[in-house]
Amino acid sequence: ASCSGAAGCTDSAVAAAAKPSGSDEVEVSTWMIGIAMLAFVQLVQGFLGHYQSECYKIYKDLAPRNELCDEYLFTNNLLALLPLFALKDDIMAAAWRALESDPVPYLPFQVPERVAWLLINNVAQTCCLKGVFRTSATVSALSLTIILSVRKFLSVVVSIW
User: Fold this and answer.
1) How far apart are the C-alpha atoms of 35 and 28, rounded to whole Å?
2) In whole angstroms, how far apart are CA 113 and each of 36, 106, 116, 161?
3) Residue 11 pLDDT more than 50?
4) Where are the alpha helices (DSSP H) in the chain?
5) Average per-residue pLDDT in the chain?
6) For residue 3, what are the β-bridge partners?
7) What gap in Å lies between CA 91 and CA 113, rounded to an integer?
8) Which is more confidently placed, 145 or 107?
9) What does residue 112 show for φ and ψ, rounded to 5 degrees?
10) 22 Rama sector, left if φ>0, alpha if ψ -120 to 50, beta otherwise
């Protein structure tokens, strides 16, 4: 049973990874780490929401809120790209593997399957982020944090189910 980055996991590797070693119970420490990570993310999310609200107050005379949220979205995405320069070799290797993947069946033109999934994911993420930033322009930071927390909770419940 092997698992490689380029080819993915075989069924036996997935089955072996899914079985707990020794017992059927998950260790409490694993759950505590996950809960601590979620709590940390909630704190950071709340801080960023309040910071963005303050930015809306400071720059409210420059443009309407819907234009400001587009500016914040662009700036956040641009700043998020900077740390990726440290991973450029890994990103290039993954890009070549994606380009070498099998083509999507039933299309009249050739598109590598991994590239198609990447494009679909990017469109979905763009819609989601645009919605979050537009919502942040219309509701308070606390309301946005609650909305996003419920969305994350439902996403986890669906992924577990």
Assistant:
1) 11
2) 36, 11, 5, 26
3) no
4) 11-18, 28-58, 65-81, 88-99, 113-136, 141-160
5) 78
6) 9
7) 17
8) 107
9) -60, 140
10) left
**With 70 as the cut, is the pLDDT of residue 97 above it?**
yes
**Angstrom distance (rounded) from CA 87 to CA 82:** 10
- Rounded to whole angstroms, how far apart are CA atoms 136 and 147? 10
Return the half-sphere exposure (C-beta side, CA atoms, 13 A cut-off) of residue 48. 15
- pTM comes to 0.57
Place of tokens 């309301």: 143
pLDDT > 60? residue 128: yes
Eight-state DSSP code of residue 84: G
Write out the two tokens for 42: 């909630």
Higher pLDDT, 103 or 74: 103
Residue at token pair 């092997």: 2
Q: Are 102 and 112 in contact (CB under 8 A)?
A: yes
Nearest to 91 by CA among 127, 118, 56: 118
Measure the CA–CA gap between 14 and 158, rounded to whole angstroms.
20
Tokens of 63: 């443009």
User: How much is the pLDDT for 19?
Assistant: 52
